[in-house]
């Protein structure tokens, strides 16, 4: 079931109402968050400056460097910032005039009867100026800051900011709606159960697509993509909206910092790692180029175009793979050691643990790898050879570092560990066939009543009528045993087609039966046994001592 087209629209209304309430209530929100948009870019303050800054609307006005009684300079600066911000960010405060009044031992900067800050002789001494002069300067700065703040919270300014926020919110909801609609449309297109599903035939007719797994995979990826993109858009839009209003501007700036700080750290990490990344890219490119050249060289060696002294062409592909593996391992080691992370104790510990695990768990694997290398370079067999390993006879269809695979005449693929193959005898029928031919043999037993010359003639004639049997060297017969009632005759033939062994044996046995039947010779071993009619028993008769005495 797919979501209704209006589902995304209904889901967007709660978010819209919540954000509108937040925006509408922001001008009269509690004064815990009170800064407004600065009218001028604050001047950069050197970190080495002393004192606590008085900050209003994100702009530093001046610094307090002395304490008053038990109140520290930092606490004084926070109180003064709070007093000034309340006046600057109140749209209903009317016209505000900042005045200066001298009192005993201090000069007060006031608005009406409210003291914003008292300039003491200690403040003047810390600044190296006269107290009244310093108070007049601070009062002018405060007057300018309050005027700028009131301009920011005026009705026209709030209206403009509200319009911008509404536009941003409308754009956000539109993008979320488009993302949801596009995701639903794409899922319908990729769903084989819907009429709108249309894909290229190569994909639509595949089992993976027809089973619905493809649709489920795409639906899951799209759902994740929609959620991730929606979170990103909301995360970007909310700070933009919050920064449009005086009361929520600090919160918006904090959210922006939450977004930008990780990105800045990531950027710094990327830029700091650029030399190492460049080295890794060059190393990867050089390694790839060398492996391609190695593949080209050994491919030509395997084809016989390039000849290496004392090097068999059959070794080329395997040797090329081994060289490439060695090059890749060396490149990985060099690349990892060039990274700063390789010097961290945690990575060194992980490396030691993996080395120990590899040492303990890979003894059999290493034995098979070494056996595979030995089998390759000793030339025991090649791909396509017909061999016998233990009780399995068939074609070698795979030679790997760990295993050797043989496809039997029953089309069964048997995998042998290379260590097992190296430790057992291997009969290579293909190599024997290429040299003098494979000798096949079969044995029959015939009684002494048939002349052995006749038996030889019939067996050789049957062999010559069999397909894939070589005429040269000719078939021959060996009398392997003179038994009690019959003679064992072994027929030996040569063939150069070991891939047809089952067929050759079957045809040979059929021809032997046909020739012996035509000659009137029974293929049957005579046996002799004593027969009885069943009345006599073989148990000896037992007699008593009295009967023995009478006799």
From TrEMBL:
- Domain of life where this protein originates: Bacteria
> Keyword Membrane: yes or no?
yes
Q: Does the keyword Transmembrane helix apply?
A: yes
Residues forming the Mechanosensitive ion channel MscS domain are 365-431
Q: Which UniProt keywords apply?
A: Cell membrane, Membrane, Signal, Transmembrane, Transmembrane helix
Q: Name one GO cellular component term.
A: plasma membrane
Q: How does it sit in the membrane?
A: Multi-pass membrane protein
Tell me which residues make up the Mechanosensitive ion channel MscS C-terminal domain.
Answer: 442-523
What GO MF terms are annotated? mechanosensitive monoatomic ion channel activity
Q: Any transmembrane segments, and where?
A: 158-179, 227-246, 266-294, 315-338, 350-375
Q: Which InterPro entries match?
A: LSM_dom_sf (IPR010920), MS_channel_C (IPR049278), MscS_archaea/bacteria_type (IPR045275), MscS_beta-dom_sf (IPR023408), MscS_channel_2nd (IPR006685), MscS_channel_C_sf (IPR011066)
Q: Which residues form a coiled coil?
A: none
Cross-referenced SUPFAM superfamilies: Mechanosensitive channel protein MscS (YggB), C-terminal domain, Sm-like ribonucleoproteins
User: Which Pfam families did the record assign?
Assistant: MS_channel_2nd, MS_channel_3rd
Region forming the signal peptide: 1-30
Where in or outside the cell it occurs: the entry states: Cell membrane
Please give the family membership noted in the entry.
Belongs to the MscS (TC 1.A.23) family.
User: What name has this protein been given in UniProt?
Assistant: MscS Mechanosensitive ion channel
């Amino acid at each position: 079931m797919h979501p209704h087209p209006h589902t995304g629209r209904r889901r967007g209304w709660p978010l819209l109402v919540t954000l509108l309430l937040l925006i509408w209530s922001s001008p009269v929100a509690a004064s815990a968050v009170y800064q407004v948009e600065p009218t001028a870019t604050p001047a950069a303050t050197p970190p080495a400056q002393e004192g606590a800054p008085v900050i209003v609307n994100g702009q530093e006005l001046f610094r307090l460097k002395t304490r008053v009684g038990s109140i520290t300079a930092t606490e004084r600066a926070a109180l003064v910032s709070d007093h000034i911000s309340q006046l600057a960010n109140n749209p209903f405060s009317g016209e505000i005039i900042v005045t200066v009044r001298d009192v005993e031992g201090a000069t007060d900067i006031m608005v009406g009867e409210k003291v914003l800050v008292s300039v003491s002789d200690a403040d003047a001494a810390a600044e190296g100026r006269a107290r009244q002069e310093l108070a007049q300067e601070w009062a002018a700065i405060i007057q300018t800051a309050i005027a700028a703040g009131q301009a920011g919270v005026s009705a026209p300014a709030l209206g403009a900011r509200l319009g911008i926020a509404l536009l941003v919110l409308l754009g956000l909801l539109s993008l979320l709606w488009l993302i949801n609609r596009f995701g639903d449309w794409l899922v319908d297109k990729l769903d084989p159960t819907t009429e709108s599903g249309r894909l290229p035939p190569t994909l639509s007719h595949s089992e993976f697509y027809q089973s619905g797994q493809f649709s489920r995979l795409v639906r899951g990826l799209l759902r994740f993509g929609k959620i991730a993109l929606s979170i990103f858009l909301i995360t970007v839009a909310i700070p933009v909206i919050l920064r449009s209003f005086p009361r929520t501007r600090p919160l918006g700036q904090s959210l922006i910092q939450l977004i930008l700080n990780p990105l800045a750290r990531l950027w710094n990490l990327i830029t700091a790692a650029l030399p190492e990344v460049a080295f890794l890219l060059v190393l990867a490119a050089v390694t790839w180029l060398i492996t391609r050249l190695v593949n080209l060289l050994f491919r030509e060696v395997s084809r016989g175009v390039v000849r290496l002294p004392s090097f068999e062409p059959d070794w080329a592909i395997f040797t090329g793979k081994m060289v490439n593996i060695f090059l890749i391992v060396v490149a990985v080691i060099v690349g990892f050691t060039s990274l700063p992370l390789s010097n961290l104790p945690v990575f060194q510990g992980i490396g030691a643990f993996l080395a120990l695990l590899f040492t303990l768990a890979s003894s059999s694997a290493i034995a098979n790898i070494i056996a595979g290398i030995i089998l390759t370079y000793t030339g025991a067999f090649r791909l396509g050879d017909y061999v016998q390993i233990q009780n399995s006879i068939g074609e070698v269809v795979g030679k790997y570092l760990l295993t050797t695979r043989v496809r039997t005449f029953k089309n069964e693929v048997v995998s042998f560990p290379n260590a097992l193959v190296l430790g057992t005898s291997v009969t290579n029928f293909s190599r024997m066939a290429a040299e003098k031919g494979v000798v096949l043999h079969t044995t029959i037993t015939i009684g002494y009543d048939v002349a052995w010359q006749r038996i030889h003639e019939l067996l050789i004639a049957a062999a010559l009528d069999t397909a894939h049997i070589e005429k040269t060297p000719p078939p021959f017969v060996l009398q392997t045993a003179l038994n009690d009632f019959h003679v064992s005759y072994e027929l030996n033939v040569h063939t150069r087609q070991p891939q047809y062994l089952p067929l050759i044996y079957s045809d040979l046995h059929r021809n032997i039966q046909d020739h012996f039947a035509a000659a009137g010779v029974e293929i049957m071993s005579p046996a002799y046994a004593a027969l009885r009619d069943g009345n006599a028993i073989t148990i000896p008769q037992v007699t008593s001592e009295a009967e023995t005495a009478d006799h």
